[in-house]
C-alpha cells in the first residue's frame, strides 16, 4: 500500500478511537455511549458522511501540545434518518471532556451553514464540560458564532438538541436557541453556573440534579421539552419528532398512509364532559379519541400541566394539538402555560403544521404573584402567537371559554378559521359568581335577600352558560355532537390544506417576550 494511503488510514483509525480505550470504558461505565455509537443509532446504516474528522487544535500552552486528537472532541457531518437528510454533530466526552473549542465551533458552523443552505434539520448531541478552559476567550467567540447560526436557522429548519451528559456555562445557549431539547434521565444536566459557584456567590447548597437535572428542566424551568429514559430512547424521540416535521419551512410535514377511518366516531366523547361543571376530566382522553390512534406525542408533558401541547395526526396528516387540561388547576391559563402554548403555536406556524385547539378554561389565573410576575405580558404571548399564525387553525370549545381566555384560545376574532363547540360549552365574559359580586356589590354589602342573587345567577347561566348565544352571533361556526369531532376536523382540514394567508410585510413583530 502507498505511504499516502497508510497515513490516511492511520489518521482515520485514530479519529475513530476518540479519547482512547480507557476513556471509552469510563464513558460506558457511566451508562453513556460514545459520540460515534450515538450517531450510529441515530442515522440510517451507511448514511453517515463525516466532515472534519481530522481537524485538531494548534495550542501549545497548558500542556495542550500533547493533547491533540483528530476531530478535537466532536463528530460532525450528514446522514439520513428514515431516508430523510439531516445534519448532525455529537460531542465526544472522551476527548478533553468534549470541551468546546475553536475547532469544534468551526466544525459545527460548517454543518450549520450547509444545513441552512440545503434546508435540512440540524440535530446536536451534547456531552461537554463547556468552553475549553485552555483556549480562554477564543472559545467564547466560538460559541457566539454557533449561537448566531442557531438564530438565523430558527424557523427555517428544525433544530433538535439532545443533552446526554453535562451541558454547562455558555454551552446551554445553543440548545436553548433550538426548537426542542431532550434530556436523558440519569446522565444529563444543564446549568449556567454549577453548585460550587452558586455556593460561593449566594451561599445556597444545591446538588447537581436539583440544580439542573432533567426533571428540573422538564417540570420546573421548561427549558427541556422531553425526558428520555436512556440514550436509545432519546434517539427514538428525535426520530419521532422529525416524523411530524418538514425538512424546512418551505415544505409540508411528511404524511403517513392513513390507518384510522376518517369517519370514526367515538361515542364516549358524548359523555366525557361531566354534568357537574366543576368536575374535572382528562383532556388526554379527548385527544386519544379524536386523533389517529396512537399518533399523539406530547411535548412538555411535565411542564405547566394545566395545558397540553403536542403533535398528532388526522387521517395521516400532522397537526399540532393545544388543549386546556381541566384535570390540572381546572385548565386555568397562567404564566407558564401561556409560555408553553405560545411557543408551541409558533413552532407549528413556522413549520406549516395546522393547529387544533381544545378549549376548557375558566380564564387567566387570578393572584398577586401572577400579576407581579407578568401574567399580562405572558398571557399576551398566547394572543400574539395565535393571531400571527397563518397555518390552518380550528378550535373546539368543550366546556368553559370564559373571559380573556376565550379570546386567547384561538377564538374567531384571533384569526381562527373554524370555531366548533360542543353543546356543553359555556362561553361567557366571566363566571356567574363573579358577575353577581360586581353587579350586586352594594346589595351584597347591605345583606340583601339572597334570592335576588340566586335569580340573577340562574338567568345569567341560562343566557351565557351555553354555546347558543355565541353561535347566534357567529362567534361559533357550528355546534356539534362531541363524537362528530374527528370527522368534522378531518373534513375541515381537507379544505384548509390549501389555505393562503400572509401577514403584513415587516421586519418582525414585537412579541411581548
Ligand atoms: C477543558 C475540560 C473541561 C473544560 C472538562 N474537561 N471540562 N477541559 N475545558 N471546560 C476535562 C477535564 O479536565 C478532564 O480531563 C476531562 O475533561 C474529563 O473531565 P472530568 O472532570 O474528569 O469529568 P467529570 O468528573 O465527569 O466532570 C465533568 C464536569 C467537570 C462536571 C463537566 O469536568 C467540570 O466541572 N468541567 C467544567 C464545567 C464548567 O464549569 N464549564 C463552564 C466553562 S465556562 P483529564 O485529562 O484531567 O481527565 C463556559 C462559559 C462560556 O462555558 C460562555 C459562552 C457564552
Report on the structure:
- With 513 residues, the chain is an alpha/beta fold.
- The chain has three domains: 2-242, 2-enoyl-CoA Hydratase, Chain A, domain 1 (Alpha-Beta Complex); 267-425 and 466-496, 2-enoyl-CoA Hydratase, Chain A, domain 1 (Alpha-Beta Complex), CATH 3.90.226.10; 430-464, no CATH class.
- It is built from 20 helices and 16 strands.
- The strands form two sheets. Strands 1, 2, 3, 4, 5, 6, 7 and 8 form an eight-stranded mixed beta sheet that branches. Strands 9, 10, 11, 12, 13, 14, 15 and 16 form an eight-stranded mixed beta sheet that branches.
- α4 runs parallel beside α5 (137-153), α12 (335-350) packs parallel to α14 (375-388) and α16 (432-439) packs across α18.
- The mean pLDDT is 95.
- Bound molecules: hexanoyl-coenzyme A.
- Hexanoyl-coenzyme A (HXC) is lined by residues 96-97, 99, 129-133, 140, 143, 166, 168-171, 194.
Amino acid at each position: 500500500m502507498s505511504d499516502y494511503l497508510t497515513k490516511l488510514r492511520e489518521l482515520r483509525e485514530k479519529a475513530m478511537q476518540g479519547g482512547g480505550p480507557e476513556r471509552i470504558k469510563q464513558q460506558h461505565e457511566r451508562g453513556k455511549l460514545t459520540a460515534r455509537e450515538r450517531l450510529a443509532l441515530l442515522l440510517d446504516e451507511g448514511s453517515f458522511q463525516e466532515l472534519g474528522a481530522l481537524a485538531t487544535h494548534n495550542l501549545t500552552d497548558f500542556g495542550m501540545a500533547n493533547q491533540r486528537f483528530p476531530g478535537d472532541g466532536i463528530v460532525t457531518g450528514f446522514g439520513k434518518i428514515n431516508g430523510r437528510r439531516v445534519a448532525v454533530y455529537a460531542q465526544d466526552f472522551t476527548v478533553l471532556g468534549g470541551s468546546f473549542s475553536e475547532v469544534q465551533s468551526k466544525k459545527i458552523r460548517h454543518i450549520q451553514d450547509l444545513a441552512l443552505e440545503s434546508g435540512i434539520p440540524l440535530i446536536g448531541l451534547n456531552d461537554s464540560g463547556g468552553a475549553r478552559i485552555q483556549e480562554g476567550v477564543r472559545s467564547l467567540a466560538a460559541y457566539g458564532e454557533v449561537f448566531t447560526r442557531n438564530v438565523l436557522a430558527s424557523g427555517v429548519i428544525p433544530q433538535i438538541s439532545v443533552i446526554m451528559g453535562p451541558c454547562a456555562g455558555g454551552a446551554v445557549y445553543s440548545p436553548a436557541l433550538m426548537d426542542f431539547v431532550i434530556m436523558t434521565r440519569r446522565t444529563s444536566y444543564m446549568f449556567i453556573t454549577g453548585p460550587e459557584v452558586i455556593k460561593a456567590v449566594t451561599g445556597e447548597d444545591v446538588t447537581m440534579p436539583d440544580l439542573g437535572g432533567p426533571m428540573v428542566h422538564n417540570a420546573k424551568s421548561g427549558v427541556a421539552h422531553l425526558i428520555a429514559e436512556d440514550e436509545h430512547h432519546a434517539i427514538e424521540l428525535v426520530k419521532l419528532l422529525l416524523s411530524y416535521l418538514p425538512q424546512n419551512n418551505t415544505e409540508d410535514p411528511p404524511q403517513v398512509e392513513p390507518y384510522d377511518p376518517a369517519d370514526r366516531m367515538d361515542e364516549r366523547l358524548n359523555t366525557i364532559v361531566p354534568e357537574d361543571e366543576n368536575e374535572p376530566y382528562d383532556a388526554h382522553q379527548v385527544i386519544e379519541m379524536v386523533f389517529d390512534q396512537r399518533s399523539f406525542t406530547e411535548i412538555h408533558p411535565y411542564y405547566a400541566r394545566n395545558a397540553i401541547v403536542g403533535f398528532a395526526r388526522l387521517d395521516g396528516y400532522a397537526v399540532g394539538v393545544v388543549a386546556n387540561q381541566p384535570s390540572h388547576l381546572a385548565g386555568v391559563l397562567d404564566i407558564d402555560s401561556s409560555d408553553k402554548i405560545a411557543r408551541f403555536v409558533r413552532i407549528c406556524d413556522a413549520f406549516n403544521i395546522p393547529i387544533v385547539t381544545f378549549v376548557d378554561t375558566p380564564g387567566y389565573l387570578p393572584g398577586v404573584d401572577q400579576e407581579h410576575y407578568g401574567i399580562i405580558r405572558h398571557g399576551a404571548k398566547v394572543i400574539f402567537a395565535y393571531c400571527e399564525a397563518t397555518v390552518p387553525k380550528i378550535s373546539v370549545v368543550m366546556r368553559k371559554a370564559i373571559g380573556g381566555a376565550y379570546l386567547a384560545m384561538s377564538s374567531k376574532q384571533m384569526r381562527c378559521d373554524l370555531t366548533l363547540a360542543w353543546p356543553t360549552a359555556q362561553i361567557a365574559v366571566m363566571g356567574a359568581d363573579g358577575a353577581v359580586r360586581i353587579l350586586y356589590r352594594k346589595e351584597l354589602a347591605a345583606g340583601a335577600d339572597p334570592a335576588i342573587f340566586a335569580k340573577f345567577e340562574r338567568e345569567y347561566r341560562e343566557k351565557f352558560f351555553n354555546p347558543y348565544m355565541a353561535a347566534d352571533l357567529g362567534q361559533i361556526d357550528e355546534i356539534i355532537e362531541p363524537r362528530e369531532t374527528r370527522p368534522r376536523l378531518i373534513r375541515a382540514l381537507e379544505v384548509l390544506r390549501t389555505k393562503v394567508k400572509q401577514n403584513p410585510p415587516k421586519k418582525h413583530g414585537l412579541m411581548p417576550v
